[in-house]
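chain below, 515 aa
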Amino acid sequence: MEKLLLLFCLISTDQFEIDQEITQTPEFLERIRRLKEDPIDINTAREIELLLIPYIDKYLAERIIKYREKHKFEKRDELLLIEGVTPYLFDRIKNFITVDIKRKRRKIKGIDFLSRFERKTDVSEYKTYNRIIVPLKNVLVSGVCEKDYDEENYLDYYAFSIYIPEKLIIGDYDLDLGMGIIFGKPDFFYRSAGIIPGERGFSPHRSTYEENFFRGITYGWSDFMIFGSYIDTRNWGKEKFLGTSYKFSSIRLTGGISQTEENGKFGVWSFYADKSLAGNLFRFELASGGENPTENKNNLSYSMGMDNGKGLKAIYVNIKDSLPTLRNSPFYKDEEALYINYTKKLSPDISFGIFTELSRKLSSMEPFDRIAEFHISWEPIKNLKLNNRIKTRKEQINGRFDVIHKVKDITFKSRFEVLNGSDGSGFMAFTSFRYSKDYVLEGRLVLYETEDWASRIYEHENDLPGKFTIKQLYGSGKRLYLILGEKTLPVNIYLKWGIDFKDTAKNEVGLAFQL
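prediction:
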């Protein structure tokens, strides 16, 4: 199972980018797009609304609320006065927030509906995705269903929930507690972006991530939470789960009992603590489980993180392969890994970052596998940004150079990327434009050439609402795609057409409706 590691979020202005190891997270990308169109007021937002912002976890949300109880924010950059908000992090969230002291608390209005249809014309395969969220006073009723290309049944996967924010969920839900070793969501771990996983509580499950959620009920009151689940899992048969969590001061204790047809009955537990000392944030989680004390001892796993508040962040994890959890954490099992990230703003126009990952199997005495990355961003003149990234992994080096220019509502982007290593070499180049105001018009032409599959290059591209595509390019070829959309009518309509020129031309089309 791949980890869901979101490095940066590429939406329209390309301030963030998604790395090649991402899997499925359509709701996350849709949320980013909506935040850019309707930023959150940090003077009135509840904790649950602040948690919608990428990079904001409960630790920072609580401090934002505590700060504004004494001093209302008069401008966005006052966030820098809050412990844990670095200049680099502020740059990442400033487009998602606003300050309007006179504005009342935002209320959720209207039905949120999204339907997406895609088809590969050369093989006549298609997939669909449908989501609806209906607000009923203080209750949100939501449902999701999806059909993939290789599935026949439209209800092969579905999710449904009734949600009273911060209090109760009946139906399908996600937990994100501690650093996520057992009770966590992979899509909230941002590796190279320098984010230490932090808890975000419970939320309705509206994702197409099919193996990482609970089905039942969860109830939260003050610092206490209880949750139960009964679900037919794909890999372990029917599972019954009952758990509880309690947080006091900076410590959270969470535990539960699971019973499955495949594995029988076993318990899981987690001890989590976060503490701020002398401007440094420390996080630690210890987790284990099993049928008896001996198994609990043998399965002991832990993670720890540090953020010095000045751009340096580090995470160390040690996760046993035998840790008895049926859900995916942000980290691999049977692995110890160290992540170190340092970012710094050298001037108002220049910032850089360094990231290193060392990892290996717990049972291995071999050297650590190493990933090293350096990136720098420079804005020589207003609305013109130059980005450069160099990344090494094993015996492979990857270099990338971007030029991004924005003229009013139009963004132009060009990229040249080269890859060289023991498995081969190659390059990719593209140029694209995007207009986004009342209408959406985006186009991109991609040229690429690599020696074979082992030296493939990943091309990340925008897609229909709530979707992001990563094309794995290899061999020699060209790719062209166009996106058309309108945002003025009550029902927004989006169309995407793409064509790959390699051996033979292959077309793909997509259509989406959004209310």
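Helices lie at 26-37, 47-50, 58-68, 87-93, 293-298. DSSP finds five helices and 29 strands in the chain.
thats it, cya
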